[in-house]
């Protein structure tokens, strides 16, 4: 099973993905936790290029293709092998992030992003996606409590467009389940487990 966690910066998706990883391990399940960008050795170098605020001058097209390169390597070296071995694969961000940030935030066409996502993944889609939704103002407040990365330094308007695109995706795709990220982490996790226990 392939499960992804999505959401704007500061939504709590990483926390929830790691809680699920620990719970599944406790239950004796074979499970892999990974993330994008940065789920491979090459990906960690790409992640640094993408998120370092010293690289704020990256052209949007360069940024887009770096994400695609990271994903292609990640699918080939981590996701497909994990799934083929019968592991439950948990991924912190995946194709929906590219759609939300690059189509929503950066303004690339949805058709271009869909084509690039399909090519870089070879058509691999999650079985289920948990989208943690928070108002952009609150997400940014949470995300910038520590040193903000390049995306966290984007304008409020950028983050509002990202959130809107996420919600648009969720309305169109039944695999995406929206969770209120303003709840306690315990309440959110209970909802995730309840949903997974139904599968």
UniProtKB/TrEMBL annotation:
Q: Does the keyword Transferase apply?
A: yes
Q: Which GO terms describe its biological process?
A: dTDP biosynthetic process; dTTP biosynthetic process; dUDP biosynthetic process
Q: Which residues form the Thymidylate kinase-like domain?
A: 5-192
UniProt EC number: 2.7.4.9
Q: Which UniProt keywords apply?
A: ATP-binding, Kinase, Nucleotide biosynthesis, Nucleotide-binding, Transferase
Q: Which domain of life is it from?
A: Bacteria
Q: Where does ATP bind?
A: 7-14
Name of the protein: Thymidylate kinase
Cellular-component GO terms for this entry: cytosol
CDD domains, A to Z? TMPK (cd01672)
InterPro entries the UniProt entry points to: P-loop_NTPase, Thymidylate_kin-like_dom, Thymidylate_kin_CS, Thymidylate_kinase
The UniProt function text for this chain reads:
Phosphorylation of dTMP to form dTDP in both de novo and salvage pathways of dTTP synthesis.
Q: Which PROSITE patterns match?
A: THYMIDYLATE_KINASE
What's a single GO MF annotation on this record?
Answer: dTMP kinase activity
> Does Transferase appear among the keywords?
yes
Q: Can you state which reaction this protein catalyses?
A: dTMP + ATP = dTDP + ADP
Give the record's family classification: Belongs to the thymidylate kinase family.
């Amino acid at each position: 099973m392939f499960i992804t966690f999505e959401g704007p910066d500061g939504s709590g998706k990483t926390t929830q993905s790691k809680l699920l990883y620990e719970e599944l391990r406790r239950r004796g399940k074979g499970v892999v936790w990974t993330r994008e960008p940065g789920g491979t050795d090459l990906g960690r170098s790409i992640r640094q290029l993408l998120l370092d605020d010293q690289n704020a001058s990256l052209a949007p097209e360069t940024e887009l293709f770096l994400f695609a390169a990271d994903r292609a390597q990640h699918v080939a070296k981590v996701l497909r092998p994990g799934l083929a071995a019968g592991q439950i694969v948990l991924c912190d961000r995946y194709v929906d992030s590219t759609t939300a940030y690059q189509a929503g935030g950066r303004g690339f066409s949805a058709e271009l992003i869909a084509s690039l996502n399909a090519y870089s993944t070879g058509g691999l889609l999650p079985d289920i996606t948990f989208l943690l939704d928070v108002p952009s103002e609150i997400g940014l407040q949470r995300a910038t409590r520590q040193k903000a990365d390049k995306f966290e330094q984007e304008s409020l308007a950028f983050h509002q467009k990202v959130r809107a695109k996420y919600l648009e995706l969720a309305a169109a795709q039944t695999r995406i389940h929206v969770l209120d990220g303003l709840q306690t982490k315990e309440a959110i996790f209970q909802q995730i487990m309840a949903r997974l226990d139904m599968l």
